[in-house]
Amino acid sequence: MKVTVHRKAHFNAAHRLYRKDWSYEKNDVVFGKCNNPNFHGHNYELIASVTGEIDPETGYVIDVKILKNIIKAEVEDAFDHKNLNVEVPEFQNLNPTAENIAVVIYNKVKAKLNPKFDLEITLYETPRNFVTYSGE
Ligand code: NI
After folding, report:
1. Spacing, Cα 125 to ligand 1 middle (Å)
2. Is 99 an active-site residue?
3. 56 C-alpha to center of ligand 1: Å?
4. Choice among 15, 34, 42, 74 that is catalytic
């Protein structure tokens, strides 16, 4: 019997979407306002979903404190109030789209979780725009 435990978190961060190897004009056509050279911010909402068997002893799939602490260390402390392009090493050469941010978060959180769990990351860049990634 598998159950999924979800933990929500939040961070604010700035980014710019562009490719260094493209002209400003091409970046403008592809990324529009997100190519603003002065960066812009988003209020990101994260849901980390951990699926596994219920431990018959505790009744937990995972102690949510463990998940909370992983998210704090790997996501909030690393990304909150940061300029993703400039201050976060993972995005030095990776466009910080919601898609790529979700993959980076997945990889960081998965590395700290017991491998017996399945993980899915849901990342809202705006209340209407969100992506999911589960390691496929
Ligand atoms: Ni943006």
Report:
1. 8
2. no
3. 44
4. 34
- Mean pLDDT score of the chain: 97
Is 15 one of the annotated active-site residues of the chain?
no
CATH number at residue 69: 3.30.479.10
For residues 46 and 71, the answer to whether their CB atoms sit within 8 Å is yes
Q: Residues 37, 71, 124, 1: what is their CA dihedral angle, to the nearest 10 degrees? A: 150
Mark whether 34 is an active-site residue.
yes
Contact criterion met (CB below 8 Å) for 95 and 103: no
Q: How many domains are contained in the chain? A: 1
Owning domain of residue 74 = 2-133
Q: Is the pTM of this model over 0.90?
A: yes
What separation in Å is there between the alpha carbon of 51 and the centre of ligand 1? 30
Q: Dump pLDDT digits (tens) for 5-64.
A: 999 999 999 999 999 999 999 999 999 989 999 999 999 999 999 999 999 999 999 999
